[in-house]
Design goal:
8-stranded mixed sheet, globular, about 20% helix, 40 strands, alpha+beta
């Protein structure tokens, strides 16, 4: 038996819409992450985790060694050409972080731009993340956004590649959404956040000037919108967008005209979405749902003075409800489109002709159950495009796609030492949800695995993000031990198009959770799963909490990672990051009907006296997306309500990290190993028994 810490209970009664909501652990939020009592509780939980894991550390170490054995520690990522240089990242054996490199295309020695290992030691940093790095047009300067806390508040540093020194003092307090150069390489565009960490402003910085003199280009006062910007493929136009979940407004700026203000190109219109828009010379190209094109279509607008008019829009690729379009990349002679058909990712190529565009030709691959996406491309005149290809059993391959012939050439296959693809098999099955909808589930196992077997079921199901079948070494220690790894493609993602997303958000959000539970039930009923372990992160952590509440008896263990589990408290507080941006995803609980929808599934508020499975809950103290107090409150309340026979509950807080965990690739592997060791012990029945409350 092991004695878990008990958080102090300081009863608070929330009252809204005439509904009272008891919250004994609200103090974990209001007292803040720097409060000694909060830190003492989180530290006690970490100490409890260490006690629980003490007999499992040998297993954890063995899994870590297995994971590491599949990593090519010394490796170069594929080169990406920008201007006169090819840029790439290098990792070295024993070093936790990447080294940013480049080589001149004309020949000459490689150059080291940034060694994150050296930076971390030199500046005494616990973690280091680079979110975006962009060279100036002439390659003399190299700008990057650096986060050292995990709070997603960035410095912008500009390296003078000729001297190896920074070209001026770093800019501070930046958002991670924007970093681009003007045409002359004398200035940069960047974004900043408001007090809730919503990107609300875009700025122009002139090199050599203090940040206080930077020019404010765009400000978005509407708290439900956020800003972003990116130059067009030819580098001539900066596209500035203010976007919400259901509308976008586009502005443009000539990058060659210093001091030019942005001009409005396409005003926002609620319900009309234009997620992608680019400058195609004498016309604009856009993906849109305008006119009822729920799965999106491709249109063009002639260039003229003033804002665009939908009456002028012409179809380039007419609407097809069986084809969900998601992205485009323009080249001088071709257009590359990404999207989905039949539940899988697809690519199409259209030739650019003097009169417009040729027919859309689909890029074909030998198998359907794969994931393919557009890779990094920065050469507008190129006749080939970098694409990325993977499946559950096939490690990531970087390919060059000939835009005329549609033939592909392998650039780099990710090396995975000790991996033999022939030993594994992937499948897709379909389960039936309670409302009759058929939901796809992807499965990975070794060919010699006997069923039923322990099964890890992973899920996400929010924001339209799809959990596409892709290779990961992280699954190998489980499947090599005779487990099945399953991914439930629940509603709320976009695996089956926009309709799939819309059927799992707002008033339909419960579908996400019942889909996942139905997947677990079906895997047990059809003889696949013997024991079920559920895992999900962030909004997938919300899924874990809701699935736990719906069927606590179905799971042997549940792993809510950085979980969004206190939905009502978060969405009622418009002073914290993401809240106002996400009213279109979850609803606005200030409206009574929408409050009722969220109250019906909010995991923290729907916990009840039950016999709970084992729980491994994780968070980062500096997480700006899902604050530490959500998982902390959830763990405390589960312990209050756990009936005799419940499993062990642990809460892990990484004190120096944010939403993504530690920045070290070795720590990342160790965190996976720790969770898997816990899962193996849970299934084996060897976890210590918790004390009765």
């Amino acid at each position: 038996m092991t004695s878990a810490p008990r958080a102090a209970r300081k009863g608070v009664l929330h009252d809204i819409h005439g509904v009272q909501r008891a919250d004994d652990y609200h103090w974990l939020k209001t007292q803040g992450k720097a409060d000694p009592e909060v830190l003492a509780y989180l530290s006690a939980e970490n100490a409890h985790l260490d006690t629980v894991m003490a007999p499992l550390r040998y297993t954890q170490a063995a899994i870590y060694r297995e994971l590491l054995s599949h990593v090519q520690e010394q490796d170069d990522q594929p080169e990406v050409v920008r201007g006169a240089y090819a840029y790439f990242q290098r990792t070295l054996e024993g070093q936790a972080h990447a080294i940013y490199m480049r080589r001149p295309l004309a020949g000459g020695p490689e150059e080291t731009l940034l060694d994150l290992n050296d930076l971390k030691v030199r500046e005494g940093l616990e973690n280091v993340w680079v979110y975006r790095a962009v060279p100036s047009p002439d390659g003399r300067l190299w700008a990057y956004l650096l986060d050292t806390t995990g709070q997603e508040v960035f410095q912008m540093r500009v390296l003078d590649t000729a001297t190896g020194e920074l070209a001026g003092a770093p800019l501070t307090g930046l958002s991670g959404w924007v970093l681009d150069w003007n045409a002359a390489g004398t200035g940069l565009y960047y974004a900043t956040d408001d007090a809730t960490q919503r990107p609300d402003s875009i700025w122009r910085h002139t090199l050599g000037q203090p940040q206080a003199q930077d020019e404010w280009l765009l400000h978005e006062p509407d708290a439900t919108f956020r800003v972003a910007a990116l130059t067009t493929e030819d580098g001539g136009t900066l596209r500035l967008v203010s976007q919400s979940n259901m509308a976008q407004e586009w502005w443009v700026l000539d990058t060659a005209q210093d001091g030019a203000p942005p001009t409005l190109l396409l005003p926002r219109e609620r319900g009309t979405e234009v997620p992608v828009l680019t400058d195609a010379g004498d016309h604009w190209l856009a993906l849109t749902n305008h006119g009822g094109a729920e799965e999106f279509k491709l249109v063009r607008f002639p260039k003229r003075a003033g804002t665009l008019d939908w009456a002028d829009a012409q179809d380039v690729l007419p609407y097809d409800p069986a084809r969900h379009l998601t992205g485009l990349l323009l080249f001088r002679g071709h257009l590359l489109l990404s999207g989905r058909e039949g539940g899988f990712t697809r690519l199409w190529v259209l030739a650019r002709t003097p009169g417009g565009y040729g027919p859309a030709r689909r890029v074909e691959f030998p198998e359907d159950s794969v994931t393919v996406r557009i890779g990094a491309n920065h050469v507008f005149d190129a006749g080939s495009a970098r694409i990325v290809f993977t499946s559950l059993t096939r490690p990531v391959e970087h390919l060059d796609l000939d835009l005329d012939s549609l033939d592909t050439t392998l650039v780099k296959a990710t090396p995975v030492p000790g991996y033999d693809a022939s030993l594994y098999v992937s499948e897709q099955t379909w389960i039936t949800a309670p409302d009759g909808e058929r939901v796809p589930v992807s499965l990975l196992r070794r060919r010699d695995t006997l069923l039923p077997a322990p099964t890890l079921l992973y899920g996400y199901g929010s924001y339209g993000f799809s959990m596409d079948p892709a290779f990961s070494i992280a699954r190998l220690p489980l499947v090599d031990r005779g487990w099945v790894y399953a991914i439930a493609h629940v509603r709320g993602g976009s695996e089956l198009g926009r309709r799939w997303y819309d059927a799992g958000r707002l008033a339909h959000k419960m579908n996400t959770f019942t889909d996942f539970v139905a997947a677990g039930e079906a895997l047990k009923a059809d003889g696949t799963a013997r024991e079920l372990v559920a895992m999900g992160r962030s909004a997938g952590g919300l899924l874990m909490g809701a699935a736990l509440n719906l069927r606590p008896d179905l799971w042997t263990a549940v792993f809510p990672g950085v979980p969004f589990v206190d939905v009502l408290s978060t969405m009622l507080d418009d002073s914290i990051p993401l809240t106002t941006n996400e009213y279109d995803e979850w609803g606005n609980p200030n409206h009574e009907a929408q409050y009722a929808v969220m109250a019906a599934y909010s995991p923290y508020d729907n916990l009840k006296a039950a016999r709970y499975p084992h729980l491994f809950i994780s968070t980062g103290l500096n997480d700006p997306r899902v604050a530490y107090w959500e998982p902390a409150k959830f763990a405390a309340r589960v312990r209050d309500l756990a009936q005799p026979g419940s499993g062990t509950v642990v809460l892990k807080t990484i004190m120096g990290a944010g939403h993504g965990g530690s920045s070290s690739r070795y720590e990342y592997l160790n965190e996976i190993a720790e969770e898997y060791a816990y899962a193996l012990a849970a299934v084996a029945g060897t976890l210590p028994t918790p004390d009765a409350p």
